[in-house]
Amino acid sequence: MIIQIKYTNLNSTPAMNDWVEKKLRPLEKLLNHWEKEGKVIARVEIARTTNHHNKGEIFRAEVNLDLAPNIVTRADHKDVDARTAVDIVQGKLEQELKKINNKTRPQDSGGQKQLRKLRGKE
User: Fold this and answer.
1) What is the DSSP letter of 90?
2) What letters, b where the CB count within 10 A reaches 16 and e where it falls short, cover 78-116?
3) What is the β-pairing status of strands 59-68 and 71-79?
4) What pLDDT is stored for residue 110 in this prediction?
């Protein structure tokens, strides 16, 4: 998985880059199926939504996962802290990937192919 990080109205820090990497790398175990078809790109945007407020949900984290040429999944969240927003987005993406993988994975793990071989039809 390739992770591209963009900061909007916020300065980039190595600690924040490491945090995003640390949170998104565990999703690779759910992306094995998609990695075989091509490269998976995670486009991450961390933004400060306002420059004049100091309280409330002023940080936004958004992640777009390009799984295949026509399949993109997205999650975003606003929070008081940028790291908390990234945490919550990671959880949302994990749920979305599990849902997508359940829809696209073969239900029978190759049993039909074995039956065809036994019958001599393959």
Assistant:
1) H
2) ebeebbebbbbbbebbeeebeebeeeeeeeeeeeeeeee
3) antiparallel
4) 67
Can you tell me the mean pLDDT for 20-35? 87
Tell me the per-residue pLDDT of 58-105, one tens digit each, with 9 for 90 and over. Answer: 899 999 998 878 888 999 999 988 999 999 999 999 999 888 877 765
Kindly report, residue by residue over 71-84, the tens digit of the pLDDT. Answer: 889 999 999 889 99
The Cβ of residue 11 has, within 10 Å, a number of other Cβ atoms equal to 7
Q: Which domain holds residue 56?
A: 2-119
Domain total in the chain:
1
Please give the angle made by the CA atoms of 47, 52 and 55, to the nearest 5 degrees. Answer: 80
The label of the residue with tokens 């949302």 reads 92
* CATH number for 71: 3.30.160.100
